[in-house]
Specification:
The longest helix is centred in the first third of the chain and has 14 residues. This protein folds into two domains: about 80 residues, Double Stranded RNA Binding Domain, CATH 3.30.160; about 100 residues, Arc Repressor Mutant, subunit A (Orthogonal Bundle), CATH 1.10.10. A hairpin with a 2-residue loop joins strand 2 and strand 3. The protein is built from seven helices and nine strands; from the N terminus they run E-E-E-H-E-H-E-H-E-H-H-E-H-E-E-H. By secondary structure, the chain is an alpha/beta fold. Helix content is about 35%, strand content about 25%.
């Protein structure tokens, strides 16, 4: 049975839907109700769940990681993500986006070039990302370095990216399933906004 757990950390609510040591969904918002609603929308409809007021040690680890990423600190730990119920294409996109390190962004087009499909298809996967922050959809921007979209709101996306600024100056490439994906310093986005 899935456990849904939400916790307030420094005025932001973070939530996780997990089972044993596998993450089915994550969420963050400015109210507990929004976080729980988001988790419910992201979990597979046929899996029983319970809401827990107290998190187990695994759920607490996920919450700490979410808060750390939100605050610009990057990724603390690799978690097993439940992707079996997602399409093969969605899994490819999410796995590619998970490779983008703190301090960098990629365009919808550069992700599409690495995994196949179109920038619009990548955008659709990002819009339904069940693992926000762990799979950093906030690091996906338009090809002209404008913000594009974001479920948490563009102001929130920009604030997260500001906290991820590391002073990088050069674009790089990372290899995704044998293909190159171009990534750019977050500063390229911040210069536009």
């Amino acid at each position: 049975m899935l456990t849904l757990y939400a916790k307030n950390v420094d005025e932001v609510w973070f939530g996780v839907a997990c089972e044993v040591e596998k993450v089915f969904a994550t969420a963050f918002a400015f109210s507990q109700t929004q976080v729980l609603q988001s988790l419910l929308e992201s979990i597979p409809f046929n899996i029983p769940f319970q809401h827990s007021i107290k998190g187990n040690s695994f759920a607490e680890q996920v919450i700490v990681s979410l808060a750390n990423i939100y605050n610009g600190g990057g990724y603390i730990q690799n978690f097993s993500l439940a992707m079996e119920h997602l399409s093969k294409y969605a899994r490819k996109v999410l796995e590619a986006v998970a490779l983008i390190p703190v301090g960098y962004v990629a365009s919808y087009g550069s992700v599409a070039k690495a995994v196949g499909g179109s920038p619009r298809a990548v955008g659709q996967v990002m819009a339904s990302n069940p693992f926000p922050l762990i799979v950093p959809c906030h690091r996906i921007v338009a090809s002209n370095f404008s913000l594009g979209g974001y479920g948490g709101g563009l102001r929130v996306k920009l604030e997260i990216l500001k906290r991820e600024k590391r002073g990088y100056a050069k674009e790089q490439e990372i290899i995704v399933n044998g293909r190159k994906m171009q990534i750019f310093p977050v500063e390229f986005v911040l210069e536009k906004h």
